[in-house]
Amino acid sequence: MNENIEFLQAFLKNPAKVGSVKPSSPELAATMIEGLEPSAENVVIELGVGTGAITKFLQNIVPDHRSYLGIELDSALVKNLRRNFPDLNIVCGNAMETAAIHKRSGLGKVGYIVCCLPFVSLPAPVRTGVLEEVDEFMQQGCEFRTLQYAHGYYLPPAMKFRELMRKRYGKEKRSPLVVRNVPPGYTLTWDSK
Ligand SMILES: C[S@@+](CC[C@H](N)C(=O)[O-])C[C@H]1O[C@@H](n2cnc3c(N)ncnc32)[C@H](O)[C@@H]1O
After folding, report:
1. Whose CA is nearest to atom 11 of ligand 1?
2. Domain contains 10
3. Calpha distance 168→108 (Å, rounded)
4. What is the torsional sign of CA 93, 123, 58, 97?
5. Does 110 sit in the ligand 1 pocket, CB within 6 Å?
6. Reduced to 3 states, what is the DSSP secondary structure of residue 120?
7. Residue 183 sits in which domain range?
8. What global pTM score does this model have?
9. From the CB of 116, is ligand 1 less than 6 Å away?
10. Is residue 107 situated within a structural domain?
11. Which pLDDT tens digits describe the chain residue by residue (193 residues)?
Protein backbone atom coordinates (compact mmCIF):
# COMPACT_ATOMS: atom_id res chain seq x y z
CA MET A 1 0.00 0.00 0.00
CA ASN A 2 1.11 3.57 -0.69
CA GLU A 3 2.85 5.00 2.42
CA ASN A 4 0.78 8.22 2.42
CA ILE A 5 -2.50 6.29 2.30
CA GLU A 6 -1.36 3.90 5.03
CA PHE A 7 -0.40 6.86 7.23
CA LEU A 8 -3.67 8.70 6.56
CA GLN A 9 -5.63 5.57 7.50
CA ALA A 10 -3.69 5.37 10.78
CA PHE A 11 -4.41 9.06 11.43
CA LEU A 12 -8.16 8.68 10.75
CA LYS A 13 -8.26 5.69 13.11
CA ASN A 14 -6.52 7.62 15.89
CA PRO A 15 -5.84 11.33 15.21
CA ALA A 16 -4.49 12.24 18.68
CA LYS A 17 -1.99 9.38 18.75
CA VAL A 18 -0.74 9.90 15.20
CA GLY A 19 -0.79 13.71 15.33
CA SER A 20 -0.13 14.41 11.65
CA VAL A 21 -1.72 13.55 8.29
CA LYS A 22 1.48 12.73 6.42
CA PRO A 23 4.64 10.80 7.24
CA SER A 24 7.80 12.84 7.94
CA SER A 25 9.56 14.09 4.82
CA PRO A 26 13.13 13.02 3.90
CA GLU A 27 14.23 16.57 4.89
CA LEU A 28 12.79 16.22 8.39
CA ALA A 29 14.14 12.67 8.67
CA ALA A 30 17.61 14.02 7.82
CA THR A 31 17.51 16.41 10.80
CA MET A 32 16.24 13.61 13.05
CA ILE A 33 19.22 11.36 12.31
CA GLU A 34 21.96 13.96 11.78
CA GLY A 35 25.14 13.14 13.73
CA LEU A 36 23.83 9.87 15.20
CA GLU A 37 26.36 7.03 15.39
CA PRO A 38 24.45 3.99 16.62
CA SER A 39 26.23 0.79 17.62
CA ALA A 40 25.50 -2.27 19.77
CA GLU A 41 26.67 -0.26 22.82
CA ASN A 42 24.96 2.95 21.67
CA VAL A 43 21.60 1.55 20.65
CA VAL A 44 19.07 3.84 18.96
CA ILE A 45 15.47 3.50 20.11
CA GLU A 46 12.83 4.88 17.76
CA LEU A 47 9.49 5.71 19.45
CA GLY A 48 6.41 5.96 17.19
CA VAL A 49 7.83 4.32 14.07
CA GLY A 50 4.66 4.97 12.00
CA THR A 51 5.13 3.86 8.39
CA GLY A 52 8.94 4.01 8.70
CA ALA A 53 9.56 7.46 7.19
CA ILE A 54 12.55 7.99 9.51
CA THR A 55 13.40 4.31 9.84
CA LYS A 56 14.31 4.04 6.15
CA PHE A 57 17.10 6.58 6.74
CA LEU A 58 18.03 5.19 10.16
CA GLN A 59 18.58 1.73 8.68
CA ASN A 60 21.42 3.16 6.56
CA ILE A 61 23.38 4.22 9.65
CA VAL A 62 22.56 1.23 11.88
CA PRO A 63 25.48 -1.21 11.60
CA ASP A 64 23.53 -4.34 12.66
CA HIS A 65 20.26 -5.56 14.18
CA ARG A 66 21.62 -5.19 17.74
CA SER A 67 21.91 -1.41 17.33
CA TYR A 68 18.24 -0.55 16.78
CA LEU A 69 14.92 -1.00 18.60
CA GLY A 70 11.68 0.42 17.21
CA ILE A 71 8.46 0.71 19.24
CA GLU A 72 5.10 1.34 17.56
CA LEU A 73 1.63 1.05 19.15
CA ASP A 74 -0.47 0.39 16.04
CA SER A 75 -0.35 -3.31 15.20
CA ALA A 76 -1.45 -2.79 11.56
CA LEU A 77 1.53 -0.46 11.01
CA VAL A 78 3.87 -2.92 12.75
CA LYS A 79 2.81 -5.72 10.40
CA ASN A 80 3.94 -3.67 7.38
CA LEU A 81 7.04 -2.35 9.14
CA ARG A 82 8.23 -5.89 9.81
CA ARG A 83 7.74 -6.72 6.13
CA ASN A 84 9.56 -3.57 4.97
CA PHE A 85 12.40 -3.71 7.53
CA PRO A 86 13.01 -7.43 8.15
CA ASP A 87 16.49 -6.79 9.61
CA LEU A 88 15.34 -4.36 12.30
CA ASN A 89 13.92 -5.10 15.78
CA ILE A 90 10.45 -3.56 15.69
CA VAL A 91 8.16 -4.24 18.64
CA CYS A 92 4.41 -3.64 18.78
CA GLY A 93 4.17 -1.91 22.14
CA ASN A 94 3.59 1.22 24.15
CA ALA A 95 6.32 3.82 24.59
CA MET A 96 5.12 4.04 28.20
CA GLU A 97 6.86 0.67 28.64
CA THR A 98 10.08 1.51 26.82
CA ALA A 99 12.45 0.46 29.64
CA ALA A 100 10.77 -2.96 30.04
CA ILE A 101 10.71 -3.53 26.26
CA HIS A 102 14.39 -2.62 26.02
CA LYS A 103 15.23 -4.95 28.92
CA ARG A 104 13.33 -7.84 27.32
CA SER A 105 15.14 -7.24 24.01
CA GLY A 106 18.51 -8.01 25.61
CA LEU A 107 20.09 -5.13 23.66
CA GLY A 108 22.94 -2.99 25.01
CA LYS A 109 23.14 0.54 26.42
CA VAL A 110 20.89 3.09 24.77
CA GLY A 111 22.76 6.03 23.24
CA TYR A 112 19.92 7.69 21.34
CA ILE A 113 16.15 8.04 21.52
CA VAL A 114 14.54 9.26 18.31
CA CYS A 115 11.03 10.15 19.37
CA CYS A 116 8.26 10.86 16.87
CA LEU A 117 5.37 10.79 19.33
CA PRO A 118 2.99 13.75 18.99
CA PHE A 119 3.50 15.07 22.54
CA VAL A 120 1.21 18.06 21.94
CA SER A 121 -1.87 15.96 21.19
CA LEU A 122 -1.15 13.00 23.49
CA PRO A 123 -3.10 12.85 26.78
CA ALA A 124 -1.08 14.29 29.70
CA PRO A 125 -0.71 10.93 31.54
CA VAL A 126 0.79 9.34 28.40
CA ARG A 127 3.16 12.28 27.95
CA THR A 128 4.28 12.06 31.58
CA GLY A 129 4.58 8.27 31.45
CA VAL A 130 6.74 8.33 28.31
CA LEU A 131 8.99 11.06 29.74
CA GLU A 132 9.54 9.02 32.90
CA GLU A 133 10.72 6.16 30.70
CA VAL A 134 12.95 8.50 28.71
CA ASP A 135 14.44 9.78 31.97
CA GLU A 136 15.66 6.29 32.88
CA PHE A 137 17.88 6.34 29.79
CA MET A 138 18.84 10.01 30.14
CA GLN A 139 20.12 9.30 33.66
CA GLN A 140 22.59 6.86 32.12
CA GLY A 141 23.76 9.30 29.43
CA CYS A 142 21.70 9.43 26.26
CA GLU A 143 20.70 11.80 23.48
CA PHE A 144 16.96 12.47 23.10
CA ARG A 145 15.68 13.85 19.84
CA THR A 146 12.11 14.74 18.98
CA LEU A 147 10.10 16.80 16.52
CA GLN A 148 7.68 19.64 17.14
CA TYR A 149 5.45 21.08 14.46
CA ALA A 150 5.63 24.86 13.93
CA HIS A 151 1.86 25.42 14.15
CA GLY A 152 1.74 23.93 17.64
CA TYR A 153 5.09 25.27 18.85
CA TYR A 154 3.63 27.94 21.15
CA LEU A 155 0.62 25.95 22.34
CA PRO A 156 0.68 25.37 26.13
CA PRO A 157 1.40 21.59 25.97
CA ALA A 158 4.37 22.16 23.62
CA MET A 159 5.78 24.96 25.78
CA LYS A 160 5.24 22.97 28.97
CA PHE A 161 7.02 20.01 27.39
CA ARG A 162 10.06 22.15 26.52
CA GLU A 163 10.11 23.77 29.97
CA LEU A 164 10.08 20.38 31.67
CA MET A 165 12.84 19.06 29.43
CA ARG A 166 14.96 22.20 30.02
CA LYS A 167 14.60 21.84 33.79
CA ARG A 168 15.82 18.26 33.56
CA TYR A 169 18.44 18.40 30.82
CA GLY A 170 19.18 22.04 30.01
CA LYS A 171 18.56 24.08 26.89
CA GLU A 172 17.74 22.12 23.75
CA LYS A 173 19.51 22.34 20.42
CA ARG A 174 16.93 23.30 17.78
CA SER A 175 17.27 22.64 14.06
CA PRO A 176 16.34 25.29 11.50
CA LEU A 177 12.65 25.14 10.56
CA VAL A 178 12.13 22.31 8.09
CA VAL A 179 9.66 23.85 5.65
CA ARG A 180 9.68 20.86 3.34
CA ASN A 181 7.50 18.83 5.68
CA VAL A 182 3.73 18.70 6.12
CA PRO A 183 3.36 20.40 8.52
CA PRO A 184 6.68 22.29 8.81
CA GLY A 185 8.55 21.47 12.00
CA TYR A 186 11.70 21.59 14.10
CA THR A 187 13.91 18.89 15.52
CA LEU A 188 14.82 19.36 19.19
CA THR A 189 17.75 17.61 20.86
CA TRP A 190 18.67 17.19 24.52
CA ASP A 191 21.93 15.46 25.31
CA SER A 192 22.72 14.07 28.78
CA LYS A 193 25.92 12.23 27.75
C1 LIG B 1 3.59 11.57 14.13
S2 LIG B 1 3.50 9.82 13.85
C3 LIG B 1 5.22 9.61 13.38
C4 LIG B 1 5.44 8.46 12.47
C5 LIG B 1 6.80 8.40 11.79
N6 LIG B 1 7.88 8.22 12.72
C7 LIG B 1 7.05 9.65 10.97
O8 LIG B 1 7.90 10.47 11.39
O9 LIG B 1 6.43 9.79 9.91
C10 LIG B 1 3.43 9.18 15.51
C11 LIG B 1 3.43 7.66 15.65
O12 LIG B 1 3.48 7.34 17.05
C13 LIG B 1 2.66 6.21 17.32
N14 LIG B 1 2.31 6.24 18.75
C15 LIG B 1 1.44 7.08 19.39
N16 LIG B 1 1.40 6.82 20.70
C17 LIG B 1 2.29 5.81 20.92
C18 LIG B 1 2.72 5.11 22.09
N19 LIG B 1 2.24 5.41 23.31
N20 LIG B 1 3.65 4.14 21.95
C21 LIG B 1 4.17 3.84 20.72
N22 LIG B 1 3.80 4.46 19.59
C23 LIG B 1 2.87 5.43 19.67
C24 LIG B 1 1.48 6.41 16.38
O25 LIG B 1 0.78 5.21 16.16
C26 LIG B 1 2.18 6.97 15.13
O27 LIG B 1 2.55 5.92 14.26
Report:
1. 48
2. no
3. 24
4. negative
5. no
6. coil
7. 38-191
8. 0.97
9. yes
10. yes
11. 788 898 889 888 988 888 888 999 999 999 999 999 999 999 999 999 999 999 999 999 999 999 999 999 999 999 999 999 999 999 999 999 999 999 999 999 999 999 999 988 899 999 999 999 999 999 999 999 999 999 999 999 999 999 999 999 999 999 999 999 999 999 999 999 8
